[in-house]
Amino acid sequence: MSASNEAEGTAGQPLGSTRQEIEAGGWRITTLFDAYFRLDGGAMWGVVPKNLWARMTPAADDNTIRLSARPYLAERDGVKVLVEGGMGDRWDDKMRGIYHLERPQQTSLEGTLAALDIAPEEIDHVVCSHCHFDHVGALVRADGEALVPRFPRARHHFPKAEVEAERTPVHPRRASYRADDIEPLIAAGLVDLTEGDIELLPGLTLHEVGGHSGGMTIVLFGENDPNSATAAFWGDLIPTAHHIQPPYIMAYDIDVPRSFEMRTKWLGRAADEGFIGMSYHDPDRAFTRLVRDGRRYAAEDVSEARLR
Ligand SMILES: [Zn+2]
């Protein structure tokens, strides 16, 4: 595949139209889709040399690589949880251009939910790994001049340190936070702050890992259920199924030693315990299983047949 084909987004079926599903910890987890976008490949790969990363994530002429914003829906006993909040549509033409925002077949987070016959009002919880704009952008929508919650009944669970970062005027990652993604939800009384390691709902646990951002939190399903596989939503701890060697740390990360420590720990656990990994930014693979390959890790495709 040439980089230019990749840039046009013509490679295979867009994930927005190919729904995949797994079960873990009593939760049925279904892929949703919001958008493709592109970020600088060097920033996504940190100190990894381009001749290495470009084989895994081909770069376009402007050095950007293709990423997805792919939330997931988790359902158990009638409770509906949206995991991660998409890019959304509150982008002007300039920003759309910079991030190459692309929606094949006009898909959107709300559209992929509608395809499952789920209205925004039916979402009970929204869980976010952190509050960078590409992870929360679809949670607020414009209604005329007003900014209103897209999921008006949902409790929105944000890491406390992420809301603090959004509210810090001088912050090294100021550009990654937008008050308009967060403050309308707080004003509506819909936000709960999370911290540390907690069981948020039965079979759904959160672990605050930091590193990428102050409050970066991963979401596990079935972690404490001996009869179930464990599924892990990695957020930006492991942004794509290619970022699976511990030193493959994004240049965006604010605390590199912490990222290395947490990535070493969780990649090891994922391989040893057979986790099904969920990578929000991987445009091609929604679910993968990590295996040891000598001293390195490899990500195996998890086929539909093995999932059911
Ligand atoms: Zn991200």
Molecular structure report:
It comes from Saltatorellus ferox. Residues 68-281 form the Metallo-beta-lactamase domain. The chain has 308 residues and is α+β, with helices and mostly antiparallel strands. The chain has a single domain (3-307), classed as Metallo-beta-lactamase, Chain A (4-Layer Sandwich), CATH 3.60.15. Helix content is 24%, strand content 28%. The chain contains 10 helices and 18 strands. It has helices spanning 3-8, 41-45, 50-56, 93-98, 109-115, 133-136, 160-166, 179-187, 256-273, 304-307; strands at 21-24, 27-31, 35-40, 64-69, 72-76, 79-83, 125-127, 140-143, 146-149, 155-159, 191-194, 197-201, 204-208, 217-221, 231-233, 276-278, 287-293, 296-301. The strands form 4 sheets. A 7-stranded mixed β-sheet has the order 1-2-5-6-7-10-11. Strands 12-13-14-15-16-17-18 form a 7-stranded mixed β-sheet. A two-stranded antiparallel ribbon has the order 3-4. It starts with a helix and ends with a helix.
The gist of it:
Residues 68-281 form the Metallo-beta-lactamase domain. This protein has 308 residues and is of the alpha+beta class.
What is the secondary structure topology, with strand pairs?
Blueprint: H1 3-8, E1 21-24, E2 27-31, E3 35-40, H2 41-45, H3 50-56, E4 64-69, E5 72-76, E6 79-83, H4 93-98, H5 109-115, E7 125-127, H6 133-136, E8 140-143, E9 146-149, E10 155-159, H7 160-166, H8 179-187, E11 191-194, E12 197-201, E13 204-208, E14 217-221, E15 231-233, H9 256-273, E16 276-278, E17 287-293, E18 296-301, H10 304-307
The structure holds zinc ion.
